[in-house]
Each structure stands twice: as structure tokens, then as C-alpha cells.
Sequence to fold (148 residues):
Amino acid sequence: MLYIASDHRGFALKKHLVKYIEAELKQPIEDLGAKKLDPADDAPDFAIALSKKIAVGKNNLGILICWTGHAMGITANKIPGTRAITGYSTEGAEMGRLHNDANIICLASKYLSPDHAEAIVKKFLETKFDGDERLVRRNAKIAELDKK
Fold:
């Protein structure tokens, strides 16, 4: 399943991306909030909710959006089983999936146009983990930290 969430700073871009993903990519997506524009909301609340959904499903992917992408990414990576990356480029999104098997991409509404965000999300969703032995070994070392 694909999930998306944002705080108030990512709200407009999230609404745009939900329409794009459903209409252009023809992929179902579940919006976990914010459901309304509330300047008092906090990014970690949405990152936690989405990350918990990602952590329980092997094939789940997520998109988090805030002003810089940083608060969402820092929070998401505190939940065992999540591998969140910040997506500032299509190349970075591709490498995050290809090499690190990232399952969450965090977007910065401050720096990304809607078109650029669409391209990043598309690349993130269409790229699969490489599965090479060296990458599996490296990712296992990272996953081991979740157990400590």
C-alpha cells in the first residue's frame, strides 16, 4: 500500500500529489493527514502515524511532506522497519530505492515545485531494490541498529 502524510507546510503539495498519483500513476493511495490546514500541527505526529503503517507491511511505501523534509525524515527513521530518505532529486530517489531499499521518501515543499515533486515521486515508486549481495549486507547492518 502507498501512504502519504504532511503537516501544514506540506499540505498543498500533498493534495497535489494525491491527485497526480491517483490520476496519472493510477495507483491507490491512503492519505493519513493532515486532513485540514492547521498551522499549529506538528510534523512528527504525521510522520509517526505513516511510519507505523510502513513498518508493518513489507511492500508498503510512504511519502511524507513538510517544509524541508528533515523533520519528517528524522522522525520516520526512529520507527524500526522504516528507511526514510529526503528526496531533493530524481537521482537521489532512485538511488535510495535501488541501493538502500528506502520505503519512505520525505519531500520539502519549500524547495520543490509540484512538477519536480511529481518526477521525484514517480522515480521513487517505479524503482525497485537492486538486491545485490553487497547491498543486502549493508542494509542488514543498518537494520541491526533497530534491534538495539
Observations:
- The chain has one domain: 2-147.
